[in-house]
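User: Sequence in, structure out. Go.
Assistant: Echoing your sequence, followed by the structure tokens.
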Amino acid sequence: MSPSDYLRAILQREAVDSGIEAPLRRFEQRVEQLCAGWAGRHLLEIYPIGAFEKGMANRSGVGIDFVLSLSPQVPFTLHEIYESLFSALERQELSPVRRPVAAGIRFDDVLVDIIPAKRESIANDIHEIYSSRRAAPMKTNLTHHVLDAVEAGRQEEVRILKLWRDQQGLDFPSFYLELTVVAALRRRPPGELSDNVWHVLGYLAQLFVARGVLDPANANNVVSDEMTAAQKMAIARAAADTRSGIRPWSEIVT
């Protein structure tokens, strides 16, 4: 079995159904039931987003993100909206956890992130969301993120790097990781999975810490600012350690 075949066997084991009838999509109705009363007339729509929609999710870290798209006329700040949603979920005894831009809850052992987002205008899909890491609001286009990820075509490499991250116990936000993988492989041909993953590990070890990463939907959002220098160095060291010596892929990702 070649290294790429080994990695693809892992991806097959970790495959997540994202089709129209996918089991995870049934949570949309449950999220709507939870949040419709809280949002009232300001709720425009609820839809899935994130790694699930991008084809970048793994079974071992399975979860799904839902955007609560709220009217531009909501008379509250993003921080107030975020805290209000969190409190509403607490009152329903759902034990929410604070996630970078969402309130996370569990349905049937599946992590569901609920992202309250205030639409800029009915005429576009730009939303303002609250970043708990920055303790500040930011504007972005979450649908644009999905389309960019699909167009980049780096789902395999991203999924392997997410497994590596999780197995290394690293704090590396998924959106930042996804953009980093795409940047590292910009001039690399598709299909050579093991070579591409190895190349990304080299990028992480040598170039990652110093490289700024911007939100492709809004260059004012510096995604790389989501992490401290110490957190980035931990990732670089882990990547360097992974590349040191000669070891089989079975000792790198399992």
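User: And one key feature?
Assistant: The chain has two domains: 3-13+147-251, 23-141.
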